[in-house]
Amino acid sequence: QVQVVESGGGLVQAGGSLRLSCAASGIIFSINDMAWYRQAPGKQREFVALATRGGNTQYADSVKGRFTISRDNAKNTVYLQMNSLKPEDTGVYYCRVFGSTTYWGQGTQVTVSS
Fold it and tell me: CA 78 to CA 48: how far, in whole Å?
């Protein structure tokens, strides 16, 4: 049974920081990319950041310079350091793991107050 579990969400004031974690466990063969997405109320889920197994990273324009994605391949874990948070960063943050198939976590809520 594969599990993808996010943690680290919460309520923070604008300008603050949060660090999200996502751990994948179970029978997962050949994890390649690991990524973060988010979904704001009433909006579609959108891409936030991605880290390849080799360490390359990609970011949505809206978070460049503020968010940093990193991963620990030995632990099948990916992190998202979020700094200078804005109210528009509010939403449920989901982890996506790319292996032989794609796995999603249940999400963690991030709320940024103005």
Answer: 13
